[in-house]
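Researcher: Checking consistency across runs. Here is Helix-turn-helix domain protein again:
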Amino acid sequence: MQVGAHIREHRARLALSQDDLAARIYVSRQTISNWENDKTYPDVQSLLLLSAVFDATVDELIKGDVDAMDKTVNEDAGKMKQLEWYALACMVLGAAALYWAGYQFLSGWAWHTIPTVMHTVTGWTALFVITHRIEKLKRKHDVITYSEVLAFTRGERIDRGTRASRRVRARTRKQRAGIRDGAILPLINFQGPPSFSMHKGNQL
């Protein structure tokens, strides 16, 4: 991904430290470091704030990343679909094995029932593992971020229903609150010009 290098270049151009930039867009210094080292990817709101600080467009910041993001999103969508088919197969086979194990048990328990029970347990265990993997893919933060950034660049509606999106929105609200407070507090603290007393002090 190129966004980290672009952030680093613009930050150096403006002679900003990571702490300085973090303060301007209301994130932590570690977040800036993670972006610059390609550990995480900035969400749409962060990209908009960065573009304002750097006087650059979002397209300039993510230049070279769109194809890579598109590929990652499509690959994960393919993995998800494949895992869903595996889960369905495990569910059907597990249910069939469970039914057969029950039939064998009612017909008379014997050693030949043990392999059926083992197949049943294996099938349902595999289903649990696959389901966990599917949920992990759904919660994968970078893929959610990539999807939202791609939707933004294409002028499409951003899906805000996922848990990861809700976490991003919560941080976005903090960023907006920081911007609002930064603009309002100076006005609140402004006391106006100093007043001078018109009364003369007591004279001896």
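Researcher: Does this match what you'd expect to see?
Model: One thing to look at in this run: The CA atoms of residues 22 and 31 lie 8 Å apart.
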